[in-house]
Model the fold of this input.
Amino acid sequence: VPREDGFDITVASEIMAILCLATDLKDLKERLANIVIAYTYDRKPVYVRDLKVEGALTLILKDAIKPNLVQTIYGTPALVHGGPFANIAHGCNSVLATSTALRLADYTVTEAGFGADLGAEKFLDIKVPNLPKTPDAIVVVATLRALKMHGGVDKADLSTENCEAVRLGFANLK
Done:
């Protein structure tokens, strides 16, 4: 069989989601071992562990599991690590980066992508149970433009003042 290869968007992969939920190398290896990679003719799942390659996969990711410490233009430290898409995964940075920040900083700010209806729900239901601490506060970003749109205003009319549409749009924030 001739070799076929190509490019994948890494944030759109199951391995990125697994990397971002792993708490250490042992946990990463266990999560990788549980990936279903195929089905037999009898429709039984074939797992990575069945091929005995979870160790090799973990070795490839041994450096990728480490969060990156960067500096903002204001001189503030920031941890940047991972970020699977929220439409196919949980849409948050890594548990390791957030856990490290919680351990080292007075306060930690993180983001859950894809809006409150999907991103926040996945953050609270999938990521938070893997963290050493639960959030003390959550910020929801809502623009007047978005509230008007959710209140029934056509896109062409969003720049026009419409207090009633804003009021109606607030129903999505309850």
